[in-house]
Amino acid sequence: MPEDCANPLLAEWLKEWMDDAKERSSKAYTIYKKAYQSMKACPLRFDHPSEAQQLNGLGPKLCDRLTDKLKDFCDQNGLPMPEKGRKRRRTSDAALPDPARPDQESPARRVRKSQPYVPKLRSGAYALILALGTLDRETNQAIPKNDLMALAQPHCDSSFYAPSDPTKFHTAWKSMQTLENKELVCTKGHPTKKYYLSDEGWEVAVRMKATIEGRPLQPPSPKGKKRAAPRERSPSRDVSLEPATSRPASIRQPQASQRTASESLRIVDLLSDDEQNGRGSEPELLDPVSRRSRTEVQPVSAHVSSEDTIFLPSGSFEVKMVLDMREVRTTTDRDYISAELKKLGVVPVIRSLPLGDVLWVAHVNSGYVETLKAANVGDDEEGNVEIVLEHILERKRLDDLIGSIKDGRFHEQKFRLHKSGIKNVTYLVEEYSLSAERSDKYGEALESAIASMQVVNTFFVKQTSKLDDTIRYLARMTNTLKSLYEKQDIHVIPSRKFEDEAVALTLDRLRRTAPGKTYGMTFSAFGAMCDKSESMTLRDVYLKMLMCTRGVTGDKAIEIQKIWPTPRALAEAFEARQNGPEKDNMISDRLGNTIPRKKVAKALSAKIAEIWG
Q: Is residue 519 a contact partner of residue 491, using CB atoms and an 8 Å limit?
């Protein structure tokens, strides 16, 4: 037993039960293990086992069993049984009976001063108090629930209308119960209930407003009684909160604005240094008239004359966010994400995406559509030309990420994202409630996958705690990309240029040749490259065939393809070897000196030989 364990007796009994359950292969082993770890890590001494219910993994039944065990221990050693319900003493004082320590009297307790209630910034309680604080205190004004929710929503990060997690049922309105229990909010009226602040609630609202406006805080007045119910009167429809842009930056701005700024910097960091330093500029500056009239095809550089692109000047397009139509909150609430984005000032384009969940396009103005059509760039069915920009986002909830790792979709998606040629890939991982057993089982796999995306694949990984945070991040990213790209010129690559080689190779060579420029392809070309199997080369089909074998990642498939360039070459290599270890170990022996993530183990080599040999 660790020496620093505050409750050695309780921890010892839990360990005995845990070991016994493990020997019997009982399902209770997981329960006892969780309770034992919580007890061992707890720094507080308990006067009675019932106090251990505050720990994770210890419920009423397990605490009752510990109480019975403690009674037997006290009877056997002639010790008094601790009384239930006494307040916990400090860690340095004796708590549960210990034969090695004499009984000690508890020291005199200090009377703790009650602290004034402070709601969490941008929480439901914070928003409700601010909303009710805009009412007229002198006339005892009260408003119904629907009006109050509409006033409070701009001040809250969570929704008052839908749960942030599909597995939960409570919205931000749940905070009203806390405010009523603390006697900060009172109600009146029947059957329509109306809400207003008590005297204590007004004190909290005044302190919050003083903090927002940067005024010195006044000491709280002594705790008083609830205000009498106000006289009946109709709520004023003219009552409204200040807009978010006009609020002073004292409470919200130190965290919210800094968070926004930091996220914006991260997004900017996704671009190369040349693009940041030379944003919106070209090596040869032109006057606005000549820039807007310049629509002829121009070479990217003098060294790559064959790679002609179409010049699209700044101001001739608008940056828009495209959201995959399969990105929904639940099957019964399919419009939640798009509706919340519209509230934040971002109107997404909803359509089916061949790759990724969110990407950003430059929607070309009508004056340049005919020019791009004449250059054989291609357009969509409605006649609109959209240029895919250099950012794409893949969103995964934790449960979906675990499923993709198990069935192999995770590596296949990463391979397709690399092959798309889009420069900046953001992999967004959204928290989701998992069972303790599943979290323990796949925790290391999740950490390894996230680290691999950052280090090996050079993806930018963003982690959010809930769907509402994801939506706010998408809105901030969209606004940042609009400010970046709408000041730049875009060089559009005609679709015919992708016929001779892969998209990723073409874009990579262009970016290395002229790194200060922004390149893009039409959305129709992007869809054809990512979605249509007939546009794939033999090499692409061969790699996908290899990756159909469980355990063969994109990196391993590429290494195999370098040695045996065609399916026929691989099949003939197997035929030339005798059955047994020579055939089974052919690939693993040949790739034995590659870097670890590209090696093929003997078991995987035998599996490939069984399929191809």
A: yes
Q: Is the preceding omega at residue 191 within 30 degrees of 0, hence cis? A: yes
- Distance of alpha carbon 268 from alpha carbon 270, whole angstroms: 5
Instruction: Using DSSP bridges, classify how beta strands 424-430 and 518-522 pair: parallel, antiparallel or unpaired.
Output: unpaired
Q: pLDDT tens-digit profile of 195-247?
A: 999 988 999 999 898 888 887 765 555 544 444 455 444 443 333 333 333 33
Cβ neighbors of 357 (< 8 A, separation 6 or more) are 323, 324, 326, 327, 393, 394, 395
DSSP notation for 315-378:
TSEEEEEEEETT--SBTTBTTHHHHHHHHTT--PEEE--SS-SEEEEEEE-HHHHHHHHHTT--
Find, among 177, 122, 179, the residue nearest to 153 by Cα.
Answer: 122
Query: What pLDDT is attached to residue 502?
Result: 66
The DSSP-derived string for 69-124 is HHHHHHHHHT-PPPPTTPPP--TTS--S--TTS---PPPPPP-PPPPPP-PPTTSH
Higher-pLDDT residue of 317, 524? 317
C-alpha–C-alpha distance, residues 283 and 263, integer Å: 30
Q: At what angle do helices 60-77 and 8-23 cross, to 10 degrees?
A: 110
SS3 471: helix
Pairing of strands 490-492, 518-522: parallel
Residue 356 CA: distances (Å) to CA of 418, 420, 447, 503, 523 = 11, 10, 21, 16, 13
Give the number of other CB atoms < 10 A from CB of residue 65. Answer: 14
351: CB partners within 8 A, 6+ apart: 322, 324, 325
Domains of the chain by range and CATH?
A: 1-101 (1.10.150.110), 124-250 (1.10.10.10), 266-528 (3.40.50.10130), 536-612 (1.10.150.670)
Residue with structure tokens 């092959």?
419
Q: How far apart, in Å, are the Cα atoms of 599 and each of 540, 552, 593, 602? A: 20, 10, 8, 10
Least Cα distance to 199 among 242, 140, 143, 146 occurs for: 140
Q: Give which of 331, 344, 335 is closest to 479, Cα–Cα.
A: 344
pTM flag (> 0.70): no
Distance CA 558, CA 556 (A): 5
What would the mean pLDDT of 582-599 be, rounded to a whole number? 83
Q: pLDDT per residue over 434-482, tens digit each? A: 777 787 888 888 888 899 899 988 999 999 988 889 999 999 999 999 9
Tell me: the pLDDT tens digits for 64-95?
A: 899 988 888 888 888 888 887 655 444 444 45
